[in-house]
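Fig. S4 source data, part A: sequence.
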Amino acid sequence: MSSDWPHVKLGSLADFQEGYVNPSQREPSYFDGPVKWLRATDLNDGLVTNTSRTLSDKGFNSAGKSAVLFEPGTLAISKSGTIGRLGLLGDHMCGNRAVINIKPKPNSVPRYLFFVLRHLRPTIETLAEGSVQKNLYVSTLSKLDVPAPSKGLQQAIADMLGVLDDRITLLRETNTTLEAIAQALFKSWFVDFDPVHAKMQDRAPEGMDQATAALFPDSFEESELGAVPKGWRVGRLDDLLVLQRGFDLPAQDRTSGDFPIIAASGPSGTHHKAMVKGPGVVTGRSGVLGRVFLELEDFWPLNTTLWVKEFKAATPCYAYEVLRLIDFKSFNAGSAVPSLNRNHIHGLPYLQPARPCVDAFEVLASQIHKRCRVNEKQAQSLVVIRDALLPRLISGQLISEHSMKEICNECT
């Protein structure tokens, strides 16, 4: 089905406001206040409700006449750095110089524009100008051609795609919460020793059944790491687990398949063969340090990573939490390219809990991570559906104005 929808310049559907609030970093009093400060790194191609930094009223007002708040329901797009990254604003925010606020006019629907611009991002990236650093300018962005069906149809398309987008967001937010629960449980049991403290005070450990509580001692003893639960010994990290360098796999030798390829920065495509049986744990060895990944299924760790070759006194979920607490960047042995020598961390002193306690944690944490994996697979399936629908909906190939009227009474 070909579309009869008109195409118009983006400037006929929206107004624009560039961000200018860039307070001096030398003025601590300008920061950590009530004003949300939107930067390009805060744009997540979804709903933005919070920013990584905030400003005080003094910091906001330091921009003078340029101190303008972007309103909820408007859009923001990155104009430098990673060109074309989007955000649908869920609160009042001021923008810095790397973002442009897009304010839909009465003849357009904000979320429809959001989906259209996200789809057109490859085109938007080509609009950036500059030799040293490319920038996206309002004068150029406003001339972008966009499909412009009736407002009622825009709303219907936004609603269709929005249902999928909202479900994807909910699944991933749920996973963030679940992972935080697993991490908090680890910290409670093996860092703060809450069950031991509770038993010392003749209390039942909070949220723990009687059988699990019985696994923990009811007193502490001194060690080189300070007071530790009685009977738990202090050893080295390599008494818990052994790290091994990943495997070479040049890009030209990769064949898409069922097994994830894990780089130092995270998942990096798939391959038709795996080198490691899951579950396993991976962290960066070269390039990117500090990120840790738990893989429940078989996978291929690249040569830029270290993977746990042997779980000795640790289990996969336990090892994952142990490695997440290490400041790998402080062990950087490289110069131009960050790199990690496994021997530098293998010798770190580490507490070795009683194995039944580790096993009890593994049972609970593995259930949480398996639930996360199910959620992520569902989210990925919805992403495929959404991304397949998006170009067809906004181009009119999937549904026409006439047929939409049969399901949308608001169409005009």
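Fig. S4 source data, part B ends here. The chain has a mean pLDDT of 92.
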